[in-house]
Structure formats: structure tokens, C-alpha cells
Amino acid sequence: MTVKITEDMKFSPSFDYIDNGIEHGVLSPFETKEVILKKGQQIAEGFKPLSCDIRMLKDVPVKLRDGVTIYTDVYLPVTEDKVPTLIAWSPYGKSAGTAPRYKNLFGMLGMGNQWNSGLTKFEAPDPAYWVEHGYAVCNPDMRGIAHSEGNTTMLGSQEAQDGYDLIEWLAAQSWSNGKTALTGTSYLAFSQWYIAAEMPPHLTCINPTEGLADGYRDLAFIGGIPDENFIERLAVNHVSAKGAQREDLAKEMQAAPLADAPIWEDKVADPSKITIPAFVIASYSNTLHTLGTFRSWRTLGSKEKWLRIHDRQEWPYYYDKANTEELRRFFDYYLLGTENDWLDTPRVRYSVLDFEGGNQTDIPAEAFPPAESNNTKYYMNGKFRALQQKPEQEDLPVKYLAGGLPGRTSFQMTFDEETQFIGYPKAKLFMQAEGYNDMDVFVWVQKLDKFGNVLSEFVVPNHGAALQDFTQEGASALRYKGAWGRLRASMRQLNSKISTDEIPAYTFDKVKKLDDSEIVELDIVLSPVGLSYKAGETLRIVISSKDELGAVMPGTPGCTPDNKGIHVLHTGGEYASYVQLPLMKK
Question: How many CB atoms lie within 10 A of CB 103?
């Protein structure tokens, strides 16, 4: 391998690649060839017939700088014109659009499969649509996946360099106009932060649609609390037909639990190095991607950059017809040189949610948060369990049994007029642990209706009973319940270089266990918010010893807190705990 950091990686055997034309899609059997897919052809039952003829270059070998060969599928218009290329970089299988696992997933979400041709790599653009409009689509199997050589790595400089090499290879092909773009959601978004920061000469623009940007802070140790469960879920995508090894992040978590280990420093994206045009898509609701997407947007070095904050889950957003048409305006302008009105698009468009069917979307602004947003402190009153704008003179501690019942405490305020919060919230808590030397603290900002019922909002089309079950205490990316944050008290050290009063940031490079009865100050970053309250509705902040939102997706457990004894929250005097919320001025 070309990148030295791979010497520090921990590897395990990849999972077997079952190449039976079913498990990984009807087009998965390996064969380097060129074929014309005809207009009207149906790739598999239940998928949309092709809307145009497509020239498919299948299992094309691409040699990387260290001699490793990866394989890619390329979909092209049947034309002599030179075309730009959209690239879908991920480990998810270049031919897996018709794989049962993805058909079942989109069925569960209520999306079905009729929205795509079956050529669509998971979380990637549909080649049928883009080829019809004059683009090539490249679906690679990255290093170590399926028939591609080498060992699979996950995030960081090895993927960045490999993506660079693929981009430059594509730009040199006889059918290419020399322009390329990265697009896609989730893994296909966070890989963009790393690849684009390498500054490939022929990468023209990017479209990250909700993707984390830090393997430690956004994935393995959110809030300094380890969570191997979702990582193990991701690992099953690392399948090889050649006996490859896969980078094992769970092993790396055990071997290197602090963020200053080289293995984790290599997995921190640096969007400040990205200077090409970027159309960034975010939401408030994605418990895996929201923090990383907004952080990347803030630090992005591009002068030409746009942010759109929507009110759905990333997949129904990305494959929505109107949103695809808008994305094409962006790509047409930069990749085809089309003189359209893209530059008139507001640099920021945000949403305000209400959990009651009255969401406001595409509100234009010059920045996020908008200029009218004002950070406002609401102090916790331990006696009345209220939130108020002035701190109490005397401290009244509130206690709860960690991991017991209820295992949490909460504070509320009811509004007498319509109120909006748009921006970056945080919590400052003064806490101590009785009977233990650490605390995992979970914070959740809720909305209650005028009757006291806790509100939430599905962000996928399916609202059925099974999804109700999964999302009640889990599958948090599918049902938005409000802003959230978490922090392990022993990992509370702030990073003085980048932490601000508005947005705390942590070093996660040392462990400072709590002394007996020591009161510690916890600055807990919460996810960005755009939420409205009507008169008579209530904001409730929950401080808990449990991961009340649960894991990101169905079937995966959430993190396991390290909590014992009693948690004590202080609420006045010199220990006036508060939540800081971005209140919109009238």
C-alpha cells in the first residue's frame, strides 16, 4: 500500500463475496466487456425500464499508483460527444442496485424500487437518469472489494489517494471531457471530504449529501463514548472474491482509544483544503451525519459553496425528482458549461420544523445560522424543574440513579408566543458522580404539544407499525425527535484551538477520571436545530444516563454507557447549569 498509516491499521479477513448474480445484483458476475443496454430494457423485476440506450463498460481495470488494480463499471451515453463523469466512491458494491438487501431496505422505508433503474449503486446517482442527460457515471469497487485487489481501508488518506487516481484515470479516457464530480449520500458523501482535499486536478465540483467527516468523533467515539455496534454493521459490506483483508475499526478502537492516535488523526477530514465548488446537503435529523456535515460546511475552503438543509432522510431527499433536477442544474453549470441560473441560488437555504405537518423549507439566508439568530441561555431550576432566563442564587442539586428508573432528569419551559430556534445549541452542565469515577451523559431537546405529549417526525415515507416499533427507542436516522448530544465526563477536555462558546469541540486525547464528589463542568455540543414552538407548547431538555435515541438504523443496538452510582446535576449559584439555544429575534 502507498500510505504509511496502513502499517498502524488492524486487519481482519474480509467477508466472502458470493458472486451468484443474486446476492450482489443481477449484473455482478465478473466479466470485463462492453455492452449496450437498450432503452425500455428492465434490469430486474420491480425496477424502472431504461429511459435511453446506455453504453456499459463492465469490470474495467484501473491501476492505482502502487500497482493495485481495482475494477469499475462505467455507464456512458451512446454518442461521440465527450462527457463529464459523476463518481460514486464507496465499498457498497458497484453492481448491487438489485441486491435483495437494498430492495428490502427501500421497501421497508416506503420508497419501493420503481424510482430507479436497478443500475443505481447504493446511495449513488442513477446512471439511467444521468446518462440520458449527457453524463457518464462511474461505479468503482474500491480497493479490496469484490474482485478489486489490495486490502480494504475505511476513511482517510488511502481512500483519498485511490480516489484521486481514479479521477485522473477517468479524465484521461477518450470519451471524457476532462471534468469529474463526486456525488452521493452517507459513505459516498463523507468520502468526498477526504478525496476532494487531495485536490485532484480534474475534480471539478462536489455534492456531499449528508456525510460524517471524522472517524473518531462522528462514528467510533461520539462524545468520547465508544460504539462498536454500528461499525460492525458497516463492516459486513467489506466483501472480497480474492481473500482480501479489511480494516477492522472495532479492533482499532480497542488498541487506540484516544483521538491523538495516528490511526484516528488520519481519519479527520480537512475541508479547508477543498477549494472547488460544492453543493452541500444537510439535515437536522441524521444522528450519524448531521454534526459532521455542518462542521465540514463551516470549514469548507470553497468560495463557491451552497448549503441546503432539508427536512427528510437523505435517501428520499436524494432520489426525489425535483431535487435531482436541481442537482443537475449545479452539475450542468460546472461540468457542461451550461449558462443557467445556478449562480442565483441562495448560498444557504434552511428549514424550520414543527413536528405537526407545518414545516417551512428552503428559507433563503446568507449564512447559517441566519443573522437573526441570537444565542440565549436558559438556566435550570432544580426546585421547579423549569428553564428560566436568570440563574437561581442558590444551588439545588438534582439526583438520579444512573441506569436505573427513571435514570434521567428534565427541565421544561412553556411558550406564550410563537418561538423559533435556528442554529447551534449546546448545554453547559455542572455534574458529579457519587459512587463512580466517570459519567456518560446524554442530552435531548424535545418538543411537547399543548397537552404535554412528546412530538417527533418521521423523515421517511413509511409510518407503519413496524417502523414505529424500530424507531421508538432506536433507528434514530429515520425519525427525528429533536436536538441531541452526548459526552463522557472523563473526556471533557475542550480543544482551545477550535472550540467556541457557540460550538464546543474536544481534544479526546486524555482521560481525566472524576474524583470522589468532584463537580465537573461539561460543555456538551448539541446537533444543529431549526425548530418552532407555538404558544402553549413546551420545550423539554432531558439529561439522561441512557442513550434514549438509540442506534442509527433498525436492527443495530446503540452504544453501551459506562454508568454506575448516582449522577448529581447542580442548578444554581456558582454551578448554574443551562442550555444555550439559538433564539430567532422577532
Answer: 19
Mean pLDDT score of the chain? 96
Residues 6+ apart with CB under 8 A from 42: 48, 49, 50, 118
Torsion region of 54: left, alpha or beta (phi above 0 gives left; psi -120 to 50 gives alpha)? beta
Residue 414's alpha-carbon distances to 116, 169, 451, 504, 568, in angstroms, are 45, 59, 11, 27, 25
* pTM exceeds 0.85, yes or no: yes
What three-state secondary structure class fits 202?
coil
Positive or negative, the Cα torsion across 319, 184, 84, 143?
negative
Q: Around 285, how many Cα atoms within 13 Å sit in the side-chain half-sphere?
A: 29
**Model confidence at 454: pLDDT above 80:** yes
Rounded Cα distance, 141 and 68, in Å? 12
Secondary structure (3-state) at 471: helix
Query: Do 125 and 119 form a contact (C-beta atoms < 8 A)?
Result: no
Q: Is 403 left (phi over 0), alpha (psi -120 to 50) or beta?
A: left
Position 1 pLDDT exceeds 60:
no
8 Å CB contact between 175 and 136: yes
Q: Answer yes or no: are the C-beta atoms of 387 and 579 closer than 8 Å.
A: yes
Please check whether residue 60 is in contact with residue 32, taking contact to mean a CB–CB distance below 8 angstroms. Answer: yes
Which cell numbers hold the place of 28? 455482478
Which residues of 64-221 form beta strands (DSSP E)? 69-77, 83-87, 136-141, 176-185, 203-209
Amino acid identity, position 418:
E
Is 407 in contact with 401 (CB distance < 8 Å)? Answer: yes
Please say if the pLDDT value at position 109 is more than 90: yes
What is the C-alpha separation between 440 and 447, in angstroms, rounded? Answer: 23
Look at residues 248, 258, 182, 188 and name the one whose alpha carbon lies nearest to residue 216.
Answer: 258
C-beta atoms surrounding 511 within 10 Å: 13
